[in-house]
Specification:
Elements: H1 15-36, H2 41-47, H3 54-75, E1 89-90, H4 91-108, H5 112-119, H6 124-142, H7 144-151, E2 155-157, H8 161-165, H9 169-194, H10 205-226, H11 251-260
Helix pairs in contact: 3-9, 3-10, 5-6, 9-10
Length: 285
């Protein structure tokens, strides 16, 4: 299994190093989740009621950090984005799945990753949650013929916001940075208006803002600078990377070919056909 920027595929590290790196990365990630409060189901559940918005604020900051960091590393030549895997979009199934995921997270107080990290702290509720989502996964697989067609419907390929709105990707990045900052401030305002400061919060809101304001300003400055870079400077086109970038039109055939392997067909002599006119543009999915 490769990480999202496949260092093995680009020859930076070996297969063995790729596997061994998962161990320290996992420990660091779990350590960060613990100190961010993601291993406490009560803290996560309180976020849905605006009682403690620390968890979504951390998530917003992680998204902004990853987004800006990826762009900067790509512009500096450290990451080849044409070698990365981009998750295809199945719009309606993903929307329904996200809704169900949110309901489950609000009820259980965990997602699969945070539950696994919480088990390391000895929490019984996390163990129960893991048993529940494993059972649900098995049930989903057993009943897949029932909803399999819906699961694979509404395919949009590799679909990005800049393509949806017809904008430069740098401008979209800046908009997302501003949205994350505004969302964090609005959630903190809602918590302040409707609830008192959580008892387990180690710092007062004024102290939190003292540390957050410089980081917010830095993110806005970087996002503003990147807004002037064209999308092509970030997304490098590489026709040899079809394994990682699944095109809309060829997706079903590519998926079938990967499952069945290359297949040779006998050559059949046929009379030449008249050329069929093609129309470029977004002809749907």
């Amino acid at each position: 299994m490769d990480i999202v920027a496949p260092l093995v595929k680009t020859g930076v590290i070996s297969e063995a190093a790729n596997l061994w790196l998962a161990v320290p990365i996992g420990f660091v990630f779990g350590f960060a989740l613990y100190h961010a409060g993601f291993t406490d189901s009560r803290k996560i559940a309180r976020a849905f009621y605006l009682k403690d918005v620390g968890v979504p604020v951390v998530m917003f900051s992680a998204i902004v950090t990853g987004m800006l960091g990826l762009w900067l590393l790509s512009l500096a030549g450290f990451i080849d984005t044409s070698k990365m895997y981009y998750l295809p979009t199945y719009l309606m199934p993903m929307a329904i799945g996200g809704l169900l995921f949110g309901i489950g997270m609000a009820i259980g107080g965990f997602c699969p990753g945070t539950a696994a990290s919480s088990i390391a702290t000895g929490r019984v509720d996390a163990m129960v949650f893991v048993v529940g989502f494993l059972g649900g996964s098995i049930l989903f697989g057993d009943l897949f013929p029932v909803w399999g067609d819906f699961y694979k419907s509404d395919y949009r390929g590799v679909y990005r916001l800049d393509e949806l709105f017809g904008m430069n990707l740098g401008s979209v990045v800046l908009i997302l940075v501003v949205a994350a900052v505004a969302g964090s401030l609005l959630m903190r305002l809602g918590q302040h208006l409707f609830w008192s400061t959580p008892k387990d919060q180690s710092m007062e809101p004024e102290q939190v803002l003292k540390y957050e304001v410089p980081l917010v300003v830095l993110a806005l400055v970087i996002g503003g600078v990147l807004a002037f870079f064209p999308t092509g400077s970030f997304f490098k086109q590489d026709n040899t990377s079809t394994y990682y970038i699944i095109q809309k039109e060829a997706a079903p055939a590519q998926m079938h070919q990967r499952q069945q392997g290359p297949r040779k067909t006998p050559a059949i002599e046929t009379e030449p056909e008249a050329p069929v006119p093609t129309h470029k543009g977004g002809e749907g999915c």
